[in-house]
Amino acid sequence: MTFVITQSCCNDASCVAACPVQCIRPRPGDPDFTTTEQLYIDPATCIDCGACAAECPVEAIIHHTELPDHMEEFRSINADYFTEHPLGDVTPQAAARRRLPQDKPHLRVAVVGSGPAALYAAGELSEMRHVEVTIIERLSTPYGLARFGVAPDHERTRRMADRFAPVLRRPNVTCLFDTEAGRDVSVEELRRHHHAVIWATGAFADRALGVPGEELEGSVSARDFVAWYNGHPDFSDHRFDLSGRRAVVIGNGNVALDIARLLAQPVTAYEQTSISPQALQALRASGVREVVIVARRGPAHAAYSTGELLALAHLSEVDLLALPDETSAEAAPASDVADPSSSDMRRRLATVRAAAARTPSHARQITLRFGLTPIGLTGDTQVTGINLRRPDGTIESIETHLVLRANGFRGRPITGLPFDPATGTVPHRAGRIIDPATHEPLPGMYCAGWIKRGPTGTIGANRRDATETVTSLLDDLARGRLPAPTSPSAHLAKRLVTPHGQG
Predict the structure, then answer these.
(1) Which of 151, 193, 378, 462 has the greatest number of beta carbons closer than 10 A?
(2) What angle is formed at CA 415 by the lines to CA 208 and CA 224, rounded to 5 degrees?
(3) pLDDT per residue over 330-356, tens digit each?
(4) What does the pLDDT look like over 379-434, one tens digit per residue?
(5) Which of 314, 333, 313 is nearest to 322 (CA)?
(6) Sign of the torsion formed by the C-alpha atoms of 13, 15, 17 and 19
(7) pTM, rounded to two decimals
(8) What are φ and ψ of residue 454, in 5° steps?
(9) Which residues contact 132 (CB under 8 A, 6 or more apart)?
(10) 277, 236 in Cβ contact below 8 A?
């Protein structure tokens, strides 16, 4: 008897500490913790106590007798991990209790942003006595990408908000919504009122394809499209033409699969979800029946997770297809051969090759394409197609009126802070923001989340990231490196609070 970790695992690792026999891996600090797709339970060691399931913030842990048919494969996914990584040391990890130094008994920190990284950091800080946290959020609602970046049919993942909500209600946490750093309050003003400022503003700009025609109507960034269907207030008035039969998605990460799934499925799959009313109405009138997902490299280098790919293959009214000549072992160049020792890789490749062998049986289809490089979008004012270069140098043209660019996000420069335009991140060392001129940390300035490390990892990955930043901040406090505030934090809150905010 065992519990099984399934597709919606957020890598938060709350379950690890709850396990009395330490049979969940990888743990924070393990070499593969930051690169693994999800966490896994060793079926040979699990004692069926259910403590992990009670602790999981997204209900990703299910008893094996209750697994729905489309999740049965996660039993072997969990077991296979331990075939490749046998369980070793089961000594519980030490739980460090943070305290302020006796000679520095008070700490005030501003956290800019209210997404996962921001709230993990705010949560760790506000658990300590004599710490005040001020959260600065541009929007009138919190949670960032946990609210506006998760697919509406991933309801379990969206429950991360339940884990974060209590942080906002703590008596030593002040929330200033509808307040934009750089517009309503300057970097210098935040520094005057706090010992430290943590910037956790995310990565909400999109990466350009850099090809002709990218500016045409019908060329849409994944950032805009995802924000629209999730009801982000900045995108509520956007309109997307879904009248054509085929849409093309550039990129093959989980965001690309989310978009393809939303466009290809019947609208009934989303009627009971948290999708925005505008998007639901548009999907009811949608003519899209085929979505083509285009990747530059082969299936061994796909960025999507095993769980998300398997979910795509299990859609009840949509065929997942691929082309044999782009997915066979013979078609893969030497640099694109998968590591045969990886069960996840073998499972993904088997799923893709099964898609290549499938005979279509539904009117709705998602087709995975590999080894194609976008070289231009066609059309005068509206997209009419996309040109793609094959590995042999020949050109393929696909007719479409809608191209969605899901080739990555990047951070935006923050007024008053250094920024690396090449990576789209703030330069840092262990969360300490670095002055590029002196290569020294800027006193009291820190970063966390995607603006710190780039747009990688699941929601829960921000927990370890935030812990690293908080550790650096507290170490600097202990060493006397943080400038003391020169103005009371209450003065800032009184000036900035709005009718929509909370003081």
Answers:
(1) 462
(2) 35
(3) 565 545 555 555 888 999 999 999 999
(4) 999 999 999 999 999 999 999 999 999 998 999 998 889 999 999 999 999 999 99
(5) 313
(6) negative
(7) 0.93
(8) 90, 165
(9) 106, 107, 108, 109, 172, 173, 174, 489
(10) no
